[in-house]
Fold this protein.
Amino acid sequence: MQYDAEKKEKIITPLISIIIPVYRVERYILRCLKSILRQNFASLEVILVDDCGGDNSIAIATKFIAQDSRFHIIRNEKNLGQGLTRDAGLKKAVGEYVFFLDADDYLADNALETLARTVQQEQPDITVFQARHLHRFSQRIYPEFSTRISGSGRDFLPAFLMTRTPHPIFPNVENYEWNKLLRRTLITRNNIRHLPDPLLGEDFYFTTQLLMYADKVVCLPQTLYCYERRNAGSLTARNDLRFFATCFRPIVEVRTFLQQHGTWTPELEARFYMHIYRYFYFEILNRLSFFSDRFNRELIQTVASGLKKNYLWKEQPEWWQGFESIYPFLAAPFVQSGTKTALRKLKLLKFKVYCLPRRIVKIKKMLFRQSW
């Protein structure tokens, strides 16, 4: 059904507005929508935003939601990418709280009821919850909170800039927008918006703004969301180095934002750089090819040039602690990345960090017939 602005004003204001960007998810969209209908919670509206994917996603959704007036569909005039598509849905939302749900993911049973009870009791600006990551041969709960904890958004900022060492008090709430229920006025009053153009890691900038302005954040030790990591078409699964290079834009925007808002202390500066070096350590290992050294050289040179071009390269050894194995490649990429011996060491490191644990899980699954 099409979105009707006049009809919107006549219904009772829902507590939660769910915004779903829809782009080439015909394999997953029904699972997502069914998870909403399974919720034991009715005070909601669901806004699906068609981002011009050109497949059958919207047709499938339209047929499924035809008899439910809580669901609405709006359409972008052209493909805008996930961030601006979420902003388009936000403009139509009327709920007190906003939930950004990805169309290839789905909600755990009773997720909305749990979140509604939390916001009604505690009135937070942001409610953060655990998510189940669905890998091909395994599952993982992340982030994982040992207990219920609350504080201001600024209290959570140092932990949000995750380093090798966890913060002693506050957990990392993660970049994800979909593991958070957000007070809508937190976004509208502070004019929080996504960066233009599809960017890798765009959540990093958006979530930083949320934490800067939030008076109260509550973390729940409950798993309320299932994140599909087997979708090869998703943004984070792309192996296009030109797209990968767009990740520098959100990083630079975050640094500028923190500097302009009086939080750029020596501690936060150190955590910021340790955070991004940790990020690129895992990005390089994750994307490294066992078969194409040409691709590997281009990957390393993309990271090295991006760090230096954007003034993100720092020589402090303590900021590289734990990630020293990639330092010589990035310091002199045209020398180190060109040697087969050096690249062989990186591939071995990838095998130890990524492949070996996954293979162990796969073997355990076969032996014990675990169902994921």
Summary: The chain has a mean pLDDT of 90.
